[in-house]
Amino acid sequence: METPLLSVRQLTVDFKADSGDFRAVDGLTFDIPKGKTVALVGESGSGKSVTAQAILQILSKKARISGGSIVFNDPATGKTADIAELRPESDAMHALRGGRIAMIFQEPMTSLSPLHTIGDQISEALIIHAHVGQAEADKRTMEVLARVGFPDPKRALRTYPFELSGGLRQRAMIAMALITRPALLIADEPTTALDVTTQAQILDLIKELQAETGMSVLLITHDLGVVANVADEVVVMYRGRVMEAGSREEIFRNAQHPYLKALIRAVPRFAMGEDERLTPIRDVKSAILANTDAPKRPQPQGPILKAEGLRKCFTLRSGWFSGKTRTIRAVNDVNLTLPAGKTLGLVGESGCGKTTVSKMIMRAMAPDSGRVLFDDGSGPRDVFGLEGSALTDYRRTVQFIFQDPFSSLNPRMTVYELLTEPLRIHDIGTPDERYERAKQLLDMVGLDKRSLRRYPHSFSGGQRQRLGIARALALEPRVLLCDEPVSALDVSVQAQILNLLKDLQDVLGLSYLFVSHNLAVVDYIADTIAVMCRGYIVEEAPKTSLFRNPMHPYTQALLAAVPDPDIDRPLDFDKLRAGRFSNPADWPEPYRLVEGEAGVMKEVEPGHKVRMGAHKAREAA
Amino acid sequence: QTYVEPPLFAEKVAKKELPPLAERLPQPPIVVNPKGGQYGGDIVTLVSRPRDIRYISTYAYTRLIGYDRSLQLQPDLLERFENEDDRVFTFTLRAGHCWSDGTPFTSEDFRYYWEDVAQDPDLSPAGPPEFMMVDGKLPRFEVIDERTVRYTWDKPNPRFLPQLAGPLDPGIYRASAYLKRFHAKYADKAALEEKAKKAKLKSWAALHNRLDDMKEQTNPDLPTLMPWRITNTAPATRFVFERNPYYHRVDNRGQQLPYVDRMIMDVSASGLFAAKANAGEIDMLFRGLSMSDVPILKEGEKAKGYHTLLWPYARGTELALYPNLNATDPVWRKLNRDLRFRKALSLGIDRRTLNNALLFGLGTEGNNTVVAESPLFSPELRTLNATYDPDEASRLLDEIGLTQRNGAGIRLLPDGRELEIIVETDGESSLVVDGLTLIGEFWREIGVRLFVKPQDRTVLRNRSFAGLTVMVAAQGFDNAIPTALMPPTEFAPMRQDNYSWPKWGQYVETKGKNGEAVDMPEAKRLLELYDTWMNTGNRTVQADVWREMLRNHAENQWVIGTVAGALQPIVMRNGLMGLPEKALYSWEPTAMIGIYRADEIYWNKAAGKEARR
Amino acid sequence: MIRFLLRRLVTMVVTLLIISALVFFIIKLPPGDFLSNQIAELRAQGESASIAKAEFLIKQYGLDRPAWEQYLVWIGVMPGPNGYSGLLQGDWGWSFEFDKPVVEVVGDALWLTLLVNLAVVIFIHVVSIPIAIYSATRQYSVGDYIATFIGYIGLATPSFLLALILLYYMNRWFGVSIGGLYDAQYAGEPWTWDKIKSLLSHLIVPTLVIGLSGTAAMIRRMRANLLDELGKQYYVTAKAKGLGPNKALLKYPFRMSLNPFIADIGNLLPHLISGSVLVSLVLSLPTVGPILLSALKSQDQFLAGFILMFVAVLTVIGMLISDLLLAMLDPRIRMGGGR
Amino acid sequence: MNTALPTKRHYVDPTPFDPGATEPVGAENESFYRASSWRLMWWKFRRHKVAVAAAFILLVFYLIVPFVEVIAPYNQTKRNGDFIYAPPQSLHLTHEGRFVGPFVYSYSQSFDLENFRRVYTVDRTSPQPIRFFCRGDAYKFWGLVNANVHLVCPPENGTMFLLGTDRLGRDLLSRIIYGARISLTIGVVGIAVSFALGLFFGGLAGYLGGWVDHVIQRMIEILRSLPELPLWLALSAALPANWSPILVFFGITIILGLLDWPGLARAVRSKLLALREEDFVKAAELMGASKQRIIARHLIPNFMSHLIASATLSIPSMILGETALSFLGLGLRPPVTSWGVLLNEAQNLAAVQLHPWLLFPIVPVIVVVLAFNFMGDGLRDAADPYH
Ligand SMILES: Nc1ncnc2c1ncn2[C@@H]1O[C@H](COP(=O)(O)OP(=O)(O)OP(=O)(O)O)[C@@H](O)[C@H]1O
Ligand SMILES: Nc1ncnc2c1ncn2[C@@H]1O[C@H](COP(=O)(O)OP(=O)(O)OP(=O)(O)O)[C@@H](O)[C@H]1O
Ligand SMILES: [Mg+2]
Ligand SMILES: [Mg+2]
Ligand code: NI
Predict the structure, then answer these.
(1) Residues D99, D102, D105, D107: what is their CA dihedral angle, to the nearest 10 degrees?
(2) Is some CB atom of chain B closer than 8 A to the CB atom of C246?
(3) What angle do CA A436, A440, A443 make, to 5 degrees?
(4) Which of A506, B386, C269, D301 is least enclosed, having the fewest CB within 10 Å?
(5) d(C-alpha D92, C-alpha B116), whole Å
(6) Which of C237, C259, C330 best probes binding to A when mutated, by most A CB atoms within 10 angstroms?
C-alpha cells in the first residue's frame, strides 16, 4: 500500500481558557492518500478547523498539540517529517507552509490583510516558495485569478479586499492557496460564500489541479452535496473525535453511526412538503418559544418593507494621481417587496449585489437612486427620511445578520456584552433580565452559557455565525435581513436554526429577507424567491413556481449546479462549464440585455416575473 | 627709545604693508611699566550671546579719559586735558595718533561727531546725548587746532568726565575719514541710498548708523582705537579680535600693547560657563560667573591648570528690595511710603543667615551703600536701620496699625487683604531667588507673607514703569566705590529704571511730561542735593552732597539692602599673568577688569608652555 | 487626488494665515517692543548716547504704528516703510538684535537644526523599531525588560539634566569639549574632515538626549500596537503562506501598527524643535531653538516671527505628508474618506 | 479508542452516542459568566504579577500623598543654616558592635576656604537614635488642623538628613516626600485633561469625518504649529503673581494637559478612520447605537493598547514637563516643591560633581514611571482578548 501523504495519528489539541482547559481535538486519526480528496465533516465546533491549524502549526497561542503525530511524506523530496514535532517557527515548517501544504481559511473576509492588494497577497506565496520575480508572479497570479472566476483579473491585482464581495474574497483566498500548487490543500469551507455555479467551478478547478499535479485535498465542509461529489474518503467528526470514517461509497450507502445517520437526515431537500420540518439532532427547547407570546402590534396594510428602483454604483479609483475611475454597477433597478410575516429569498451569483441591496435596505449605505419604504402599521415611510426616534424604532424593528460573522462582532466584547449590547442600546430591561435573555438567546442557537464570557475570536466559524444570529434576535425584531446566515453551519445545526427561524415566524410573525447560496435552504424557508444576477433581479416567483418552472436562463443554470448529497447523481461539470449564463449579454433572447439597458420585469404567471430585454418585452406586449 | 615689533606684524612690516612700529605709535605713546610682559598668544573667553562681544569695549577700557587703579581720572587716548570748574574742558590729542586703519585721529573726528552725527536730524533724531546738556543747553564746541578741541558750558557739567570714563564709552568722536564715505553731506546721496537699498536698509542714515558702531563691534571695517579690533561678524559662534597695530600704549621695554595677539570670544550657553571653565576649556573668564560657581571652579583648578582669582564685588548690596513708592494700588503706595513700614521690613531680615547661606558667610551685612574702600564710606551708615530686630519690626508694624491678623498669623491690610508682598524679580540670579525664600521665612515671623514671582526682565521693567509692582528684588547700587566726582545719579529719584521710584524718575527724565512729580520731602531733598552736586565744580561740596545722600538713604530705607561683598571669580589659565591677585570688581567705575588693563595681560611663556594647548 | 491636494493646499494657506496672526499676537503679547526695551536697557546702563539711535530705529521699523498695522506690513498686505515687503513678498524681515536680515541670522542655524533633528529622528527610528519588534515578539523576556528599563530611564530624566551629566562624562572620558556642535576652534572654518569628526562627536550627546525619550515612547507605543495586531487572523494567513515570522511581521502587523505614528509625523518636527530648545540651550547648540528663545524674550519680533512661521510651515507640510502617507498606507482611509 | 486504523476500512466509533449530552458546566456562579469585559480585564490583571507589584508600588506612593506632612521628618520649608549642602547621613543600627536601633552619627560643618567648600566631619563617638511617632516641626495638616506629629523625627538636638540637604540646608528627603504630592497629582490630572480632550476631539474627528474632521484637523494643526515656547513665555507673563501656589499648580497642570492633547487626538482620529469601516462598527450602528456609544464602547476599546501606552508614556512627560516650565520661569513657586523643581535645582555641574545626592529625586521619578509603565503593560494584556 502506498504511504499516505499525510497521516494523522491520535492527534490531541488542548486549549487553555479561563473557564478551564478543554480538548478541542481528541485522539484524531486519519490518513490523506496521495492525489485523493478527504472530506472532513462534522458538527460546527467539532474541531475541524483546529485540526487544519494543527497540521499547519498555526494554532492560537492558547492551544497546544498535546499528543499524537502528523506525519507528512513529501512526494517531491521523499522526505518524511512529523509536523507535530517541528517547532512552529522552524525553517522546515516555513518551507512546508504555503509551499507544500496550503490552506484556504474559513473566513475569507478577516483572513486577508485590509492594507494590501489582492494581487500582492496572492503573489507573495509564489515569490516565497517558487522564487520568481514580481512580473512573473503577477502573471501567474492573474492566471489563477482568472481560473477562480475573477471577471477582470488584471484589475483584481490592484483591488483591496474590502472592495470585493464575500464570494470574491473567498475566491481570492482560494487563489492564494492554489498558486503554489501545493502537495496538500487544506480547504476549510472553501465555498460557503459562493453561489452554486461558482462553487461548481471551484470544485472543478480543484479536481483539475488534482489531476494535473497529484495534489491531495483535505476538504472541510458542511455541504454533504459537495462531499458526495468530490470526496474520495470521508471522516466524520463530533466533538473532536472521529465518529465514522470510510470511503465515500461506504459513508453514503452504509452509514452506521447514529450521528452520521442523523446528519444525513438533517439535509434539506428540494420539494419538501409544505409543513415538513427539518430534523436536527437536537431541537431547540420550544419552551423558550412558547412563553414568548406574540406582542400586539399593528399590522401594516401592504408589505412591511418595499424597495423601489434601487441603484448603486461603486467608483473604483485605479491609481493615485490618475483621475481615471471605473464604476461598477453593483445594483441596478432592484424592486423588492417583503410582506409581513413572510420570507423573501434572494439568491444569485456571488458578487451580484445581494449584500449591497440588503445594506441599502438597512440604510447602511445610501443608494444612488430609489427608495426603501418601511411600514410598521402606520403607513409606508421612506427609510432614508427617518430621523430621531423614528430611526431608532426602525433600527430596533429591522435587524441585519452580517455575511461575515467574525468581522461584525466587536473583538473586544465578550459574548455576554455582545448579546446584551442591543438591549443596552435601546435601554431594555434590568441587568438581570438582560442576562436571562442572553442565556436564552444562546440556548436558541445551540450554544451553552459558558460561551458568555468568551471573546468572539475563540469560537469556531459556525459558532460565530450563530452568535450573529442570536444577537440579531435579541431585540425581537419584526424584520430580519439575513445575509448568508447559515452558510457556516453543518446541516444539523443549520436545521436547528432554520426551524427556529420558522417557529419564530409562526409565533411572532417575523418577516425575513433571506440571502443564501444554498437553494435547498432557500426553498425550505422562503415563500417567494428573487434571483439576482449582475445587479439585476432576473426572476421573481413564489418558490413552488420558481423551482417547478424556472424561466430565466440564469435561474436554470443555477438550479442545475446544485450538488446533491447523493452519489448517484453527480454534477455534470462539463455541462456546467459550458453554460453559466452570468453575463447579461450572453443570455438568449428574449432575456438578453444590451450594454446599459435595464430591461423590464414581465409577469409570466401570477406572481412570477422575469426580466426581459426592453425591446423584446415591448414586442411581447 | 627702541621699539620691538610684535611678531604678528613682522611679516607685514617687512613687506612694507605696514609701517614700522615707531611710525605707528603716537608721540608720545603711553608708557607703562608692568612686570615681565611679552608678546604672543591668544586669550579664549566666553560670551553667552553674540551681542555680548560689545563688552570688549569695557574690558579693553580705552577712553579719552579713564580711571586708574586709585580711581583718579587720567588721560588715556588724550595726551592731556584741562578742566576749568567743570565748565570748560580742553582736550589735547596725541600727535601722530592713528586709528587702526592708519588714518590719523584728529580734532576733525570730534567735530564730525558733534556737528555731522550728534546734531544731524537724520542720524540722531533725538539730538545729542543727554549728558552733554546742562539745563537743556548744548556746549559750545571749538576746534582749536588739529589736536585740540574745547567744550564749554555756561554752568558746570560735572557729569561729563565721569561719563567719558564710564564702563561704556559714549564716544564723542568718530572715525570721520571712514564714515564720511557714508554721510550724505560728504558723499553722493543717491549712490548712498542705492547702497542702503542693497543692504536692505531704508535710508543712507540707517546705513551710516549701522556702520558707525563703536560699541556693538558689528562692523569689522570700522577703525577703532582699542587694543583689539573685531575681524568677523555675527552670525558666528566664535568672534576673533586681533591686535590693533596703531594702539597707543607701550611698555617700558618698547613692546607695544596689547601683549596678547588675539582675544577670542566663543558663544556658549551661560549655563555652561562654569562647566567649561571647570573643564579647562577657556583662558580667562569672569563675566557670567558668580560666587556660587566658586566651589566648582576651585575643584577643577589642579587638574585643568588654571586658577581662580576671587575679587570682592563692589556693589551696594547683592540683594536689595525696592518698595515701589509709586505703586498704583493706593493701599500699597501708602504703606510703601510709610518709613516705619520700610524700616520694619529691613529690621525683620536676618542678614547673618543670608550671609551664611548665600555668601559662605564672607559677605558684609547691612544697607545698600558704598563699600569700605570708597572715600565716602562711613561705617555707621552700613548698619543704620539694618540690624536684625524682629521685635522692633513687629512693634513698628503694629504702630502703623497693621494689627489684625488672619488664622495663619499673617497681618491684614487696612482693606482686609492679607499682607502679602509679591516680590518680583528677573529670576536671572539664583542668589536673589534663594535670598527671597529666606527673607520670606524671616518676614513670616513678623506677620508678613512674601511671594516670589520671577519675571522676564523686560516684563518686569514694564510692570514697574506702569506702577504695577509692589516690590522688586534686584541687586543694589552698581557703583559702590564712588568718589566725590562721580555723579550720584543712582541715589536720586531721577531714573525711571529704579524700581523704588519709576514714576518720579520718569517725571524727571521727561522733564515733567510723564510720570509723577516727587512728592515726599525726603526724596525731594535728594533731588536738591543732586542739583547742588551738578552745579558745582567743587569736590568738597560734592563730597558733602554724597555723604548726605548716603545718610538720607540709610535713614529712609528707600532701598532695603541685605548683604554685600560677594566674590567675583576670575578664572585665569596658569601662565596668564597681569591681573592683580586681589582687587575690587564692579561694573562702574572699574568697568569689570577694565581699569586693571586687559591689554597688559600676557602669557608667561615659561608657565604657559605646558598650559597652552 | 489632484483635487484633494489642491483643496489641502488652499486650506493650508488659510491655516498659515491664521497661524501667522496668532504668532504675531503672541509675540506682541508681552508689553513693549524690542527697541523700547532696548532703550530702557541702554538707559539702565547709563548709555544715553545710543538711545537716540534706538529711537531712530523705532520710526524706521514702524514700531510706533498700531500692532495690527505692523502685522499687515509684516505679512506684506500693507505697505510698510519699504513699500510692500513682507512674508508674502519673500521678505522675511529684520532682526533688531543682530541688526541683520532675518535670513542671514537664521541661515546656518536652520540647517544645523535640521541636521540635529534629522539625526534624532533617524536615531529614534533606527533604535526603536527593531527593539519594539523584539520586545513585542518576545514579550516579557529579559531583553524586553532591559529595553523597557533603559527606555524609561531616558524618559524619566529631565533632558537638560541628562544633557549635563552626559556632557560632563563625555568631557571627562572622551575629551569632547563641552557644548556646541564642534570644537570652538573650528567655528567659522571651512568644512574639513576634522571639523566633521568634531561635529559628529558633538552630535552624540544631543542626539542621545533629545532622542532617548522619544525612543522610549516609540518603543512602547509600537510594541503595544504590534501586540494588538499579532493575534489577528490575517497574520495567521501570512504565516500560513510560509512567510518567516519577521518578514510576515514587518509586512502585515507592523504596517498596520504604523498608523498612529504616521499620524504623528506632522508633529514630529515642531515637537523636536521646541522640545530641543531647552536642550540646545543647555548644550549651547547653535540651532534655532536658543535664537528663538532669546528673540522671544527680547521681542525681536520679526526674527521670532520668522522662526515660528518656519516651524508652522513645516508642521503644516508635515501634516499634509502625514495625511498622504496615511492614505497611502491604509486604503480604507484613502477610499472611505469623508462620509 | 480509535487505535491505528487503516483508512481504507470503514471505521465506526463504538462508544455510545448521545446527542443531547452536554459537557458539564463548571460550578462557577452566574457572575462568572456575566462578567463584563471590564471585570474580565480586572481578573486577568490580577494574575499579572509584575503589573500587580507595580500597582502596589503606585498605591504606596499615592497613599503617601495625603499624609506627607506626617511622613516627612521635616517641614518642606524647614532649613538649617548650619547644614548647607550636607551630605546624606547614613542610618546605622549597631554602635561599636552593640545594637542600638536605628540611629545616626552627628556631624559638624567647617569651611574649607582653600577649596571653598563646606566640609562635614562625622562624630562617631555617640550614636543619636532617631525617634518614631514623635513631635517635630509644626505643620497644618491639610491646611486645617495644626499638628506636629511625625512618623519619624530627627534625634533630639540632632539632625537626620538621610538624603542630605540642599543649598539652603533643607532636608532633601522631606522635600522629596512633599514633592510627591505635587508630582504625583500633576501627572494624573494633566493626563486626565489631555485624554479627555484628545479622546473627545479625536473621536469626533475620526468617527464623524467630513467637516467636523476638517475643522478639528485645522485646529490641531494650528495648535501644533505654535511651538510651546512662546506660549509658555506669554503665559508666564499672564499668570497672576498673587495666585496661590495651589492655583499656580493647577494652572500649570491644565496648561500641560491642554498642550498635550492634539497628538493623541490625531492618533485617535487616524485609527478611528480605519476602524469605523469595520463591520462591527456598522453592526452597532445598525442596532441603533448612538454616536457617543459607538465611539466610547466600540471604537475606543479597540484602540486601548495605544491609549494605555500613551497614558503611561505621558506620565513622565507630565511630571517632568513642569521642570521645563520652571526653566522658563513659569514653574511652581517656592515654597511649593515638586520632583521637577528638585531636579531643576540639581541642574548644574556642582550638583553632579560636588553634591551628587541632589540628583536623588531622579530615583522616585524613575520608580513611578516604571511602575506606571508596568502597570500599563498589565492593563494592556488584560484588555487584549487574544492574550
Ligand atoms: N482560540 C480559541 N480559544 C478557545 N477555544 C477555541 C479557540 N478556537 C477554537 N476554539 C474552540 O474549539 C472548538 C473547535 O473549533 P473549530 O474551529 O475547530 O470548529 P470547526 O469544527 O471548524 O467548526 P465550524 O464548522 O463551526 O467552523 C470549538 O468549540 C471552539 O469554540
Ligand atoms: N466598497 C466597495 N467598493 C467597491 N466595490 C464594491 C464595494 N462593495 C461591493 N463592491 C462590488 O459590488 C458588487 C456587489 O457586491 P456585493 O457584496 O453586494 O455582492 P454579493 O451579492 O453580496 O456577493 P457574495 O454572495 O459573494 O457576497 C461586487 O462586484 C463587489 O466587488
Ligand atoms: Mg471551522
Ligand atoms: Mg455578500
Ligand atoms: Ni500576561
Answers:
(1) 180
(2) no
(3) 140
(4) A506
(5) 81
(6) C237
pLDDT of amino acid C50? 61
Alpha carbon of A241 to ligand 3 centroid (Å)? 15
pLDDT tens readout for residues D48-75: 888 999 999 999 999 998 888 888 888 8
Residues of B in contact with D332 (CB under 8 A): none
Q: What are the grid coordinates assigned to C118, written together?
A: 534629522
Mean pLDDT on A202-211: 88
Element (H, E) at A259: helix A258-265
Phi, psi of C279 (to 5 degrees): -65, -45
What is the C-alpha radius of gyration for chain D, rounded to an integer number of angstroms? 29
**Distance of alpha carbon D321 from its chain centroid, rounded?**
13
Residue A562 to residue A553: CA distance in whole angstroms: 15
Residue nearest (by alpha carbon) to ligand 1 atom 18: A47
Query: What is the pLDDT averaged over residues B537-566?
Result: 93
Q: Domain D174-383, what fold?
A: MetI-like fold (1.10.3720)
Q: Which residues of A touch D13 (CB under 8 A)?
A: 241-244, 257
- pLDDT tens-digit series, residues C191-210: 788 888 888 888 888 888 88
Tell me the average pLDDT of chain A: 85
Nine-digit cell string for D138: 509644626
Domains of chain C: 32-91 (no CATH), 102-335 (1.10.3720.10)
**Over the range B65-77, which residues count as b (16 or more CB within 10 Å of their CB) and which as e?**
bbbeeebebbbbb
Window from A268-277, A289-298, C157-166, D207-216 with minimum mean pLDDT: A289-298
Whether the full predicted model's pTM is greater than 0.90, yes or no, is: no
- Residue C91: which residues within 8 A CB-CB, separation 6 or more? C76, C82, C85
**What pLDDT sits at residue B613?**
43
CB contact under 8 A, C335 and A163: yes
The pairing of beta strand A343-348 with beta strand B320-323: unpaired
Closest C-alpha to ligand 2, atom 20:
A351
Domain boundaries of chain A, sorted by first residue:
303-549
Choose which CATH entry (3.40.30.10, 3.30.70.2190, 3.40.50.970, 3.40.50.300) describes domain A303-549: 3.40.50.300
Distance C134 CA to ligand 5 centre (A): 17
Longest dimension (CA), chain C: 83
User: Is the Cβ pair C234, A124 closer than 8 Å?
Assistant: no
Among A275-289, C82-96, D280-294, name the one with the lowest average pLDDT. Answer: A275-289
> Contacts of residue D348 in chain C, CB cutoff 8 Å?
164
Please write the tens of the pLDDT for every residue from B2-55.
889 999 999 999 999 999 999 999 988 999 888 888 898 899 999 988 888 989
Report the pLDDT averaged over residues A551-557.
87
Q: Which residues of D touch B275 (CB under 8 A)?
A: 349
State whether residue A281 sits within 8 Å of chain D by CB. yes
H/E segment holding residue D376: helix D362-383
Contacts of B150 (CB under 8 A, 6+ apart): B88, B89, B90, B91, B140, B141, B142, B144
d(CA A387, CA A406): 30
Given pLDDT bands bounded at 50, 70 and 90, which one contains residue B142? Answer: very high
The ranges assigned to domains in chain D are 89-160, 174-383
Give just the sign of the alpha carbon dihedral A357, A363, A364, A369: positive
User: What is this model's ipTM?
Assistant: 0.80
Q: Does D49 touch chain C (CB under 8 A)?
A: no
Tell me which residue of C126, C18, C10, C130 sits closest to C71, measured CA to CA.
Answer: C18
Of D169, D334, D354, Cβ closest to residue B296: D354
Hey, which residues does A336 pair with through a beta bridge? A307
